[in-house]
Amino acid sequence: VNSVLLSILGTMLSFAISLRVGSANDRFNEGRRAWSSITLNSRNLAFLIWLHAPETTLTAAQLSQPRSADELDRKLKCLIEKRTMINLIEAFSVATKHYLRNEPGVYYEDLYHLVLALPKYSFPSSVEEEDRTGLLGLWRTPMGDDGKCCIPSSARRRGTAAPGVVTPLTTIELKPASNPPPTTIYHYCPPLIMLRPIFAFFARSTSSTHRSKHKNRIDQASQSQVNANVPLEISLFVSNYIHQLIKRATLEPAMFGTFMGPTLGLQDCFTTLEKVLTTPLPFAYSAHLRFSVYIYLLFLPFQIQTTLGWVSIGAVCVASIIFLGFIELGTQLEQPFGYDDSDLDLDHFCSLLSSELHEIVAHPNPSFDFVFSEENQPFGPHDARTAGEILSEKKGTQEFKKMLVREFHRKSERVGKVQKNSSKDTVRSVEVFSI
After folding, report:
1. Residues 350, 93: contact at Cβ < 8 Å?
2. Are 76 and 308 in contact (CB under 8 A)?
3. Of 169, 124, 131, 167, which Cα lies nearest the Cα of 149?
4. Read out DSSP for 233-278?
5. pTM of the full predicted structure?
6. Cα-flanking dihedrals φ and ψ of residue 149, to 5°?
7. What is the mean pLDDT of the chain?
8. pLDDT tens-digit profile of 239-253?
9. Res 135: pLDDT
10. How far apart are CA 179 and CA 105, in angstroms?
11. Calpha distance 218→377 (Å, rounded)
């Protein structure tokens, strides 16, 4: 085999594999940025709801009427409403996690308790609008003390009733928050992952289910439930809450954009994650790249055998590990939402966001009495007087404005000296060319 031909082919494959891994790494980083944006928007929306949403569930007209004795009850209703909305914010990230892992439904230990009270939007289209309130929502089902819940099964799938009729409930057990695939030989010997396409090609499996790393192991009982875009439905309820605040006329219209910004941001992040999930690498590109690598590795021993002798066996093994390893690395990075070690730790992200949201609701609106307390020294460290002492002197604001100006000049002088000393330590040479 001509060594020049194999050298050129090796160089071309190196560029192609580098482009493949770079593209997969971009998808991985895009997924991580989108999830960081979900965390940011969830925090912002929780802050707005908990601290800036009106402290009432009444309309502006009802608030203008004389207050009754049930003021405590109204405050409690407002607290329950806000806490429920923040639960939905947490449920959005958890539902997104299960959606990206192709785990349909809401019957998981980390999700069901957050959404069990929600009515279902996706009722059968044959049911009239006014009749929908009497139907049992798919999520509005009781959960017993044994950790199991009941779901309505569609009678149309069994062929025993007309469309839209709900059959008696089916009892299923809630699934764990994390449902990793069963352990295989690839977990004990990771280098074999590079040969997985070859094993899959020669395998004669009779299973009708495609076992990918994102395929959910759905039991027979849960297959009867209606699949839906759960994050989308959760966002509908959150948006409806903001609509209710505007409808009550208790939220200023100028704040509408402030509240809707994080809400729409969650939808934008979910769309980005969905794009990463549903846009695989073209099969022709992947197959052609693997075929080219196998051809190169097949002819590589004939090129180096005369020079290395028996050592060429080890050299070919090392080259195979390098080339096939990078290809497999690109395959894993382009879908970073599963349970592999190289995937994003979505369970950790969700638990971290949950703890942050619990921290937010644990603190009421802070009181600003500390501003005028005896511990506050607003003009320190140069002026050690407390806020109470300053107020008791009643000298006006001119003295303190002058003090702030003097402090500004002192600070500027110190910064200038530091910059001058640093410029002395750094010697730079500049070449000037004349034409």
Report:
1. yes
2. no
3. 169
4. HHHHHHHHHHHHHHHTT-S-GGGHHHHHHHHHHHHHHHHHHHHHHH
5. 0.71
6. -135, 165
7. 75
8. 988 988 888 888 888
9. 42
10. 13
11. 62
